[in-house]
Model the fold of this input.
Amino acid sequence: MKNFKIIFTLVLVLVCGFNSVDAKVKEDNTYKLQYLNIDWWKKYNDDILLDYLNKAFVNNQDLKISALKTKQAQEIVKQSFADQLPQIGFYGDLFRDFQSSDVKLGNVVINDYKQSNFVLPLTMTYEIDIWGENYLKTKSLKKQVEIMKQDERATYISLTSALASQYFNLIKLDKLIKNQEQLLKLQKQIVEMTETKYKNGLCSLTELLMEKQVLTEFEETLDLYRNHQKTIERQLIVLVGDRNLVDIKRNDYKTLSMPEIPENISAEVIQNRPDLLKTENYIQKIGIDVKTARRDLLPKFILYGQAGFNAYSFTNIFGSHTFKALGGIAPSFDIFTGGLKMSRLRYSKLEYEKAQQTYEKTILTSIQEVNDSLYTANTSKKNYNSSLERYNLEKDKYSLMLRKHVIGALSELDRLKAEEALILSERDEASNKINYIISTINIYKSVGGVDYMKFAESI
Done:
């Protein structure tokens, strides 16, 4: 009995102190780095972009929120798993009966009395999971964790794509502003020369007014570019998640690499999309919930027990005659619940059908988005090639006009207009190059954040 007392005391201390133990688990960020997919972003040959993506990985609040949601779902799984285990608790009781009236137990009379009672039991309850209902509940919640992970992955894909797109838009605006400033400077010279021509009677008033109108349009466009530039800079600060970021660095558009675009992409690529994987996991989860709802109609069996001490004097509480133990099985079955459980079962079945329809719709939407992004990208590619060809032709034309200008066969005013045409074609080439690059990002996003060239098909 002495050994039992020691063992009981140790168990009591362990049970009471169990909840205060906080196991420290090292956080695994491997899957998050896979979501970031730095290897893909290296294709654009921009170290500054990679630096911003790494900063967003550490600082961005949306990424942190999505990670916390995943952790919360994992904790809910642990809570559900705890329901599959026996529950042991200590429910001590200390009470005293003061002066009481006579108590009659049949013919036996207990005169008025007063006494203390000390009860120190360990109580255990355990639902015998005969039908596997509790196991299925935990399994369903594990599927919910997978759903949350796909939501987290979707957040990574969306945020990194938005950050990269805005970064490249900022590079485009740098070039557009530079070109617009050159155009504005040239147009001012053209207006001055046209005014001189008008004063000398060599051109009409209409021609002068048209040149001044072009000047005001150039000024207006420059203001719009600068305003848009400031807006994107502020958006980048939010995407990076660093309020102290002031100087937003970026490279020149000429240093950027342009990833390839396939003629066609295999339909298998949509299997990587987080929304499709999410709906697959949701169908599996609801299928488990249907099984759980069916098994909830069956009876339950609760195993219970108590072991401890019951004494009327604290000094004698651990005496051999004070030990008390009991145990048993309590079956339970809901005979009438007003149709509640059947309603839950029917609801789960309807939810399963709805999930299947959502899955079919997600497949169609995924294929549409991939095809749309691929078509847009191929159009951007054609536009870039055309603008590049036009820019090269404009450079050749400008070289010829410079030669004419040197020998006096071309006026300075005509040379300025030729230079304007060259700058305009350069602006189109730079703009279409960035549009091409952003279109590759849209493909990357539509295929679920993977290298789409691995799924390329030739027509």
User: Anything to note?
Assistant: Residues 3 and 9 are 10 Å apart (CA to CA). The chain has a mean pLDDT of 88.
